[in-house]
From TrEMBL, chain A:
The keyword Transmembrane applies. It is a multi-pass membrane protein. Its main location: membrane. It is found in: Cell inner membrane. Keywords: Cell membrane, Membrane, Transmembrane, Transmembrane helix. The keyword Cytoplasm does not apply. PANTHER family: HIGH-AFFINITY BRANCHED-CHAIN AMINO ACID TRANSPORT SYSTEM PERMEASE, SLR1201 PROTEIN. It comes from Pseudomonas aestuarii. InterPro entries: ABC_transp_permease (IPR001851), ABC_transptr_urea_perm_UrtC (IPR017778), LivM-like (IPR043428). Pfam families: BPD_transp_2. This is Urea ABC transporter permease subunit UrtC. The chain crosses the membrane at residues 15-33, 45-74, 123-146, 153-172, 201-222, 243-269, 301-319, 325-349.
Automatic annotation (TrEMBL), chain B:
The chain crosses the membrane at residues 20-38, 50-69, 75-95, 158-177, 210-231, 237-261, 273-294. This is Urea ABC transporter permease subunit UrtB. Pfam families: BPD_transp_2. It is a multi-pass membrane protein. Keywords: Amino-acid transport, Cell membrane, Membrane, Transmembrane, Transmembrane helix, Transport. InterPro entries: ABC_transp_permease (IPR001851), ABC_UrtB_bac (IPR017779), BCAA_transport_permease (IPR052157). CDD domains: TM_PBP1_LivH_like. It is found in: Cell inner membrane. PANTHER family: ABC TRANSPORTER PERMEASE PROTEIN, BRANCHED-CHAIN AMINO ACID TRANSPORT SYSTEM PERMEASE PROTEIN LIVH. The gene is urtB. Belongs to the binding-protein-dependent transport system permease family. LivHM subfamily. The lineage of its organism: Bacteria, Pseudomonadati, Pseudomonadota, Gammaproteobacteria, Pseudomonadales.
Automatic annotation (TrEMBL), chain C:
The gene is urtD. PANTHER family: CONSERVED COMPONENT OF ABC TRANSPORTER FOR NATURAL AMINO ACIDS-RELATED, HIGH-AFFINITY BRANCHED-CHAIN AMINO ACID TRANSPORT ATP-BINDING PROTEIN. This is Urea ABC transporter ATP-binding protein UrtD. PROSITE patterns: ABC_TRANSPORTER_2. Transmembrane segments: none annotated.
Amino acid sequence: MKNAYESLLGGKQGAIGLLVLAVLILVVFPLALDSFRLSMVGKYLTYAFVAVGLVLCWGYGGILSLGQGIFFGLGGYCMAMFLKLEASDPESTKIQSTPGIPDFMDWNQITELPMMWQPFHSFSFTLLAVLAVPTLLALVIGIAMFKRRVGDVYFSIVTQAIAAILTILIIGQQGLTGGVNGITDLRTLNGWDIRDDSSKLILYFVNAALLIGCVLLGRFVLTSKLGRLLMAMRDKEERVRFSGYDVASFKIFVFCLAAAFSAIGGAMFALQVGFMSPSFVGIVPSIEMVIFAAVGGRMSLLGAVYGTLLVSFGKTYFSESFPELWLYLMGGLFIVVVMYFPNGLAGLWESHGRKWLSRFALGNKVFGQSVVKARVMSPVKVATPQPSRELETTP
Amino acid sequence: MDVSLSEFGAIAIMQGFNGLSVFCVLLLMALGLAIIFGQMGVINMAHGEFLTVGAYTTYVISSLTLQYFPAMQPYYFFFAIIAAFVIAGALGWLVESLMISKLYHRPLDTLLATWGLSLVMQQAFRSIFGAREVGAEMPAWIMGSWAPSEAIDIPRNGLFVMGLTLLCTVTIFLMLYRSRWGLQVRATMQNRVMSRAVGINTKKVDRMTFALGCGVAGVAGAAFTTIGSTGPTAGSLYIVDTFLTVVFGGAASLVGTIASAFSIAQAQSLMEFFLSGSMAKVLTLSAVILILMVRPQGLFSSKVRK
Amino acid sequence: MNSPAGFQAAKPVLSIEGLSVSFDGFKAVDNLNLYVDRNEVHVVIGPNGAGKTTLLDLICGKTKATAGSIDFDGRELSKMREYDIVRAGVGRKFQNPSIYENLTVFENLEMSYPKGRKVFGALFFKRSAEVIARVEEVAAEIFLSELLDMQADLLSHGQKQWLEIGMLLMQDPALLMLDEPVAGMSVSERVQTAELLNRISQGRSVLVIEHDMEFVKSIAHRVTVLHQGTVLAEGSMEAVQSNPKVIEVYLGH
C-alpha cells in the first residue's frame, strides 16, 4: 500500500502536485468556463497526452521523436473511421450514388467499402485498433532503429521523414482517407450523439480522467528501476549495455508507450472535436507537440500538461488577435526555452516558484499554515538519504 | 503505353535531366548541410531558410538591376550569386555566434532551437516580401533550351545550374581537402582539445564553417530561382530531403553526399514519370529509410577504430 | 618467444586463439593468442597503440573480430551480443570512469544487480532486503560504505574508479576486465586498489590493462606484453622486464 502511494503519487509532493492538476481540470475548468471554452480546453488536453509521452521518451529516455503526430493521427483516424461508418448508414447517405459508404468515398467514385475499413464497423475492434495500430508501428520503427543502433539525431530525422511520408500518403489516397480534408462530420458513438453540450461535458471528463491515468502510469514507469535505467542510458549508454542490459529493448518500450499515449489523445480528439485530418499528422504539428513538452519541462509529467495548456492558449489567442506575431512568438519561444530554460516551467518552479510561494505565505499571516508546510516541504529533498534507500527514489 | 523504343529513350534522357536539376539544388543544399552537420555535428533545421535568403537576394538584385541598370540585366545573375553567398554566409555567422555556439554539447537542443529560428525567419520573409511567391526576372540567355536531337529538349537553365553546382562542389572540395583552412576544420572536428592545444582558434573555425555552409545554401537559393519561384517556405520544403541526403551519404563524406543526392534525385524523378509525384516521394523516402536501417552509418563512411 | 608456461592443470577460463581485427586495412590486433587461467590476475601491458583496449573491446563484444575465436568457459564470445556476454559472466571497466553521475552511489551499484534486466523485470523490480544487503556488502569492499547516499558526480576521481569496479562486482563476474584501473589515482589510492584487486581475484579471473609498472608488480600473477597487435612476450613480471625485445620496444632503438 505504501509502495503504491510512493510509486504512483510520488510521495507527498507528487501527490499534492497531482491533486492540484486534478482539481484544476476536473473542477475549476468545468465550473469556470462556458461550454465553448471548455471544449477548447478539452481539445488542448488531448495534445497533453502526446506531451506526457514525450516527457517519458525524450526527457527521460533521450529519444527525441519528431513524429509523435504519426501516432496521434493514427489513433485519431482509427476512431474517426468507426464514427464515420456510423454516420454513413444507408439511411442518411441515400442521396449518394453508393449509399452506406462514407461521403468522400462516394465523391471519389468508390462503390464499395474498402477492405481496410470493414473491421471498423465493430466498436471493440476500433478500441483495440486505436491502441494497437500506433503501438505496433512504433514497435516496428523502434526495432528497426534501436536494434540497429541508429543514433539520436538520426532517429529524430527519420521519425520526421516518416511523418512526412504518412502525411503525403494520407493526402494522396483521397478515396481511402478523405484526403486533405480528413474524415469530417462525425456524429454519434454507438447511437449516442457526441455533438451536444451534455455529451461533450461527459467526453471532457473521460478525457481528463484518461490523461490523469496516463500521468499516473508515467509516474509508475519513472519511479521503477526502468525509469532509472532510462536516465542511465541517456547519460552512459555503453555502461548500461556492458552491465548486461539490452539497451534497445528499453528504448523500444518507452517509445511504444509514448506512442500509445499519443494514440489515446488522438482518439479523444476525434471524439471531442468531431473530425480528424492530416494536419495533425505531419512535421509541423509533431514538432509543436515537442515545444509543449519543452515549455512545460521535459523532465516533468505534470509540467508537460501545463505547458500544453499554456502554449495552446497562447496560440489560439495570438493567432486570432495577431496572426502576424504568432510565428515570431512561437519561434522565439523555441529558442529561448531551449537555450535558457531547458527544464521549462517545471524547472523554474523548482528553482523559484516554491521559494516565492513560501515567501508569499510568510507575508500573509492568514496563510500561516502553509508556511509550515512549505518549510517542511523544502528540506525533503536534502534529507532523503536514509529512508529513501528503503523505498524507491522519486524523480 | 504506346511508345517506341527511341521515344522512350528520349523521355528517359529528358526525365533523367530533370532529375539532374533537382539533383543540383539538392546537392548544393546538402553540401552546405554536410559541412555543418558532417564536420561540426550541428543539426541546422533552419538550413532551408538560408536557401530562401539566397533566393530572395537574387530576386531583390534582379528587380534592382531591372529598375536602375537595365543594361546590366544579362549579367546581374553573377552578382546575385555572390551576393546570395555573402548575405546568407553573414547571417550564418551571426546565428552561429548568437545561438549555435552556446549549444555545442546539446545536439537535440540545437535541432529544436534552429527549428524555432526557421519559424521566425519564415515569418520575417512573409512580413517583408509577402506570402505570394515571387520570381526573379531571368536573363534571356539562361532561358530557352538546347536540342541536340529532335526528340530531346534540354532546358538551358538546367545546364547553367549544373555548371554552378560543379563549380561549388569543386571549390568546397579544394577548400576542405587542399587548403590550410580545410586542414584546420578537419583537425578541429576530429579532436577539438588537441586542435586548440596546437594553436587553432577553434571558435573561429566553427564560425567560419557554419557561415560557409549557410553561404552555400544561399548559392543553392540563387540556383533555385532559375527553376522555380520563391515563397516564404520554399526552403523548408527541402529540409527533410536534404537531411536524408546527408545522412544517407554518410555524414562526413563529400563523395557520399554527392552520390546520395544523385541517387535520391534520380530515383524520384524517374519514378515521377511512372507514378504520381507524391507517391514517388513516398517511395524514395521509404527506400532511403530502409537502406539506413541496413547501414545506419550511411553509404560512404569508413569503419573507424574507437 | 614462447611463454614459459608450465603444465596447466585446469583448462583456462578464457582462451583467445588466432584473433584478428582490422580497421580499413590497419590490423589493430593480429593473430593474437592469449589465455587467462582461473583465479589469475593477468596483466596486459604494451606501448600506446599496441591494441590493448581493442583486445578488451573484442572480448566484451564492443568490436567484432575479423577472424579467430574467443572461448570463455566453453562459450564462443565472438558471436554473442554484448549483453549476453555480460550475462555469461564477463564484466568490463572502461578506461575513463563510466558511472551514472546523476544517481547516488547506492543506485549506481543497484543498477548492476543482476535481476530485473528485461523490460518488465525492470518495471516491477523491487528493492528487497537482499538487494540492499548485497549493495552494502560490495560498497564495503570498494571503500564507499560511508558514501552510499552521495550523488556519484561528487566522488573523487579515484572513488569513481572504485565505484565502477564495484558495479562490476555486483554482477559477480567470472572474468573481470579492467582498463587502466589506477589512472589518475593518488599513491595511497593505488595501494588500496592493489589490495582490492588481490582480494577480489579470489574465486575469479581478472584481466587488467595498466601502464603503472609498480602497480603491475604488486598485482600480476602473469604479464603479457602486446606490441602492434601481437604478443611480444609473456611470463612473470621479472621475466618480462628482463626480456631484451620488451626493453627494445619500450626504450626505442
